[in-house]
Amino acid sequence: MLKRRLITGPLLSIALIALIFFDDRIGGITCDCGTTFQPGLLIALLAMLAAPLAALEFNTMAKNARIRCSVPMLILSLEAWIVAIYCMPSSLASTTAIALLASIAVGSFALSVICLSRGKDLRGVIAGSTFTVATAAYVAMGFGLLLLIRRDHSAWWIFGIIATVKMCDTGAFFVGCNIGKHKMIPWVSPAKSWEGLVGGLITASLAAVGLAALNNFYLPSEPEITLEYAAFLGILFGALGQIGDLLISVFKRDSGVKDASSVLPGLGGILDVLDSLLLVSAVAYWLLPK
User: Which of 124, 122, 121 is CA-nearest to residue 132?
Assistant: First the structure.
């Protein structure tokens, strides 16, 4: 398990750095037809590629929990929200943007009911439709907020958010494995300990301070982040990341699965990687300096 994690983790990190580098170089694109693509095109494409895998993992949990889930509608909802958030121009009126996202939610729910009602079996239609739309919204909106942050900042800020959260995961893992004795919430995540949490938060805070120093030196066009504020954000992002991890763990415990899937050896599935980022993005959007 640890050996696979030590292989998969660095490979994913290298791939992420390469994607962030090219996304930052590309920025906004205007094609020959006059269409302007918002900054974050590669990040949006990554989200769209990950969406079907996340949908299949949610479907596995739904089946184990005896919830009927419409996989096609789950995928369609995820893609629709991601595309809508990425493509919405910054000049779009807030009421229009809300109406667009609300229309996707209403349409997704109605189509999910229709899809699950096929075959004349109406048992679990309400629960299945709610599960389909709610899980799609949680993942897509969380990722969408990262795309909104990308509009205002360098792609390296997205890397900074991810790195801070994942450093907390890494610190919590190694500290918990070595000195973790007091279980935090064993009925949700048996491996997590209070010692690991403290170690993870310290690691995240130090990582955030280091990243802020790099930002202030190498990205002069970006807002400066004081080291004290960075330390605070590191602790906050780390804590929220752990809560986000626990939220998906509740789903997995409810459905009786250990990992969402095994698509990433040593790490689990796509949701096992994304879970700690989704809640953080909602807070990072408001707290990061514009």
Answer: 124
State pLDDT tens for residues 10-50.
899 999 999 999 999 887 666 665 556 789 999 999 999 99
For residue 187, what are the domain limits?
1-31+155-290
Contact 111, 146 (CB under 8 A): no
Q: Which helix (H) or strand (E) holds 195?
A: helix 194-218
The model's pLDDT over 223-261, given as tens digits with 9 standing for 90+, comes to 999 999 999 999 999 999 999 999 998 988 888 887 777
Q: Tell me, yes or no, whether 167 and 117 share the same domain.
A: no
- Quote the number of domains for the chain: 2
pLDDT digits (tens, 9 = 90+) for 128-145: 999 999 999 999 999 999
Q: Give this prediction's pTM.
A: 0.93
Q: Please identify, among 152, 171, 196, the residue that sits at the C-terminal boundary of a domain.
A: 152
What are the E-state strand segments in 80-149?
none
- How long is the chain? 290
Contact 55, 62 (CB under 8 A): no
CB 280 within 8 A of CB 149: no
Residues 128 and 224 in one domain: no
